[in-house]
Every structure is written in structure tokens, then in C-alpha cells.
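User: I need a structural model of SSS family solute:Na+ symporter from Lentzea atacamensis for a docking pre-check later this week. Nothing fancy, just the predicted C-alpha cells so I can convert them on my end. Input:
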Amino acid sequence: MALDYAVIAAYVLGMIGMGWWGMRRATTKSEYLVAGRRLGFGMYSGTMSAVVLGGASTIGGVGLGYKFGISGAWMVFAIGLGILLLSALFARRIVRLKVYTVSQMLDLRYGGNSSMVSGAVMWAYTLMLTVTSTIAYSTIFNVLFGLPKTVGVIIGGSIVVLYSVLGGMWSITLTDIVQFIVKTIGILFLLLPISLFAAGGIDGIQARLDDPAMFDVGNIGISTIVTFLLIYVFGLLIGQDIWQRVFTAKSPKVATWGGITSGLYCLVYAVAGALIGTAGKALYPDIANKDEAFATMVEGLLPTGVRGLVLAAALAAMMSTSSGALIACATVAANDIWKRKTDVHSNRMFTLVLGVIAIGVAVALNDVVAALTVAYNILVGGLLVAIIGGLVWKRGTRIGAMASMAVGALTAIAFMVIDGVLADSPIYYSLGASFVTYVAVSLATPPTPAEVLAAWDRRVAGKADEEEELVNA
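Assistant: Understood. Predicted C-alpha cells for SSS family solute:Na+ symporter:
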């Protein structure tokens, strides 16, 4: 294991070193929160892929493949579809807004101040997203060192908090590019072919399992597939962690085509994870917890050195999403909830405090897919209608948007309590309640003032003057 330890140690030290380098570059609020809005195609595409494919997509995606076969790809596949739709339909407008948070976009569109409601929902989502990837660290450190979950979470979480606090979005962007390369090599070019070879290829897997359902794309269940599509496709359209990456693009063209490239990569990653999990079921049929399939396969199949690289790939997946969600959580807290003028130092303090909170919550939770589902249920149920409605329907009003956010979020929480976190009902009922509330209240209240809509139109067309852009900066 000495070589594995060396590979992991080199990776971790590299992440911290990039955090230190990023600290020297992140001297302004814009540099710290959105990398100065200067990322080109390559860096943008890589960092977008890294942030959306985290611990739940890697550990959880392989686990779903272990349990449901190729149908386990649907969760990550939905994530890829969400990035494709966001990039093709809305990325250009999002870049032109020149804001820092989704809530600031809502204030521009509807006028007034709705950020306390939307900010609270977005804060809860980004915090839970940070937690899901932080939970997953424990599986890697357990394989490497036999450490209990709590210790693994604290070690992994502390590394992410350190480099995120130091350099903000510049550090996260640099580490994400490395993480993107590492997990592409580790997952797609090493673990996937090695696991398929060990199981005897597709024919060998079919012979070992003797279960045709494992190669049925609908095996996971139509209702679950629909729920994944609703939660993750829509969630990727409106998440602060995703929009904040869009804000880093240096042009609308980069945001569009870099995002489309990232979405296609996610689709490939989805199929790879499901195939790895299916091969794992054929090789190790008695794993009690599906989320342990990834670590079990790495430990049992890979030679030393290679094993370290693949475990580093898993850490890369977790850390990229965790750091992106953490900086998003801190940005929302500072700009939408705290609502006072902030500088680089105060943004670092927000990142540090929320990072410590996320580590504490991660210690208390276990199921990464369940935690991610909670986050997306609240996000989609609470904010989707108000955000998409604001982008496509001029008659939507501020009161209608605020009412739909409150009703949708509360409905999602209520049905998660009544029917369970993994039930389909929370997303269906919350979206329905939010949509009906938005339309009814908007039609019952005065239209958005013409001057507000005129200012909004100038922003989305990229024609706002410098003074207008600074209003929400």
C-alpha cells in the first residue's frame, strides 16, 4: 500500500498547494467568487464537469449500477441532460446578467427584494450538496487506512475547506481541472476496463448474474426514472453551484459550448458508472451496502499504485463537488442572507464557518443518495417555477414568485416527512403546488413595473451600463 499512500499524499498536497497559489490571485470579490469571470473553453468545460460529478455521482452511481444494473445510470444521466439544457437554453442570458447569485437574478427580474426566501432555500440546498460529497470521503479513507467514518469525513472535509478558504473560486477552478483529469483517467480509462475484463466482459457478466433485468434500462422503475429527471434535470437548471460556474465564463459562447461539452461528458460518465457497478455485482454478489461496491472493487481488483490513482479519482470527484457547493453556500450566505457589504476576508470567513458546519452535518448522516435527494427536492420544489417562470413569462410577479417559493419548499419538506425522503411524492406535489401558486398569485397581483422589466431586458441582452451592473455586484 506504500505506493497507494504516496499517490494519495501527492494528490492532497497538490490540492493544498493550488489553494495557496489561488490565495495570491484572489484579491477581489469577483476573483474570489467567480474567478474574475475569465475562464476560457477548456477550463470552463473541465471545471463544470468536475463540479456536477461528485461523490453521489461516483460512489452513488456505481452503487446504483450494483443494485439495478445498467438502469443505475439514470441518476447521473439526468445530471448530464440538465447541463445540456442549461447550456443550450439559458447560459448566454445567465452570463450577461453579471451577478453573483440566483437570488440576485430574481431581484433583477421581479424588482424589490426576494432574496431572503430564495436565499434560504438555496443555502439549504448548497449546504446539503456540500454534505453529500463530504460523507463519501469516509469510504476512501476506510479503504486506505481503515479509518472510521467520522475521522475520514473530518480529514477529507478539512482538506477541501482549507483550499477553498484560501483561494476561493480560483483555487477551486485550478483544483477542478486536475480533479477532472484524474477522475477521467481513474474511472473511465482504468476502473471501467479493468472491472469489465475481470468479469469476463458483457457476456461474462450476463453468465455470472443470470438476470436479464440487470441489462434492462427500465429496471430501476419508470417512476424513479421520472423522478430523477425531474429532480436532477430541473435542479441543474437552477442550482447556485451550477450558475456560479456559468458566471465564471468569459463569454456567452464559452458558457454555451463549454457547457454542452460538459453535459456530453456526464452522459458517458453515467454509463461508465453503471457498467462498473454491474460488473461489481457479478464479481462480488454479497456486498450488503451498495455504496460500498466502489471501494470493494478498487480494493479487490486493482494493483498497488493503480489503486491509489483510482482512489484519488474518487476523492477528486468528491472534492470538486464539495468545494463548488461550499463556495456557493458561502456566496449565498454573504450576499443574500447577511446582505451587508463584503470583501475577500469576510467571504473567506463565511467559507470557513460553513465548511465546519458541513463537516459536522456529514458526520451525522450516512446515505449520500438520500442526502442529495433532500437537497434537490427542496431546491426544485421551492425555486424552479419562480426562476424558469421569470425567464420565460413576463406576467410573473414578485409576490407570485415569493409565494410559489414558500409553498413549494414547504410542500417538499412536508411530503418528505410524510412519505419518506426517497419517495416520488415530494417532487410531484411541490412542483404542482408551486406552479399553481405562481400562476394564480401572479395573475391576481399587479404586473411587474415596466421600468423593472426594461432594466431586466437590458441586462439579459448584455446592454446594461456599468452603473446597472454594479447594483447587484
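Before docking, keep this in mind: The mean pLDDT is 86.
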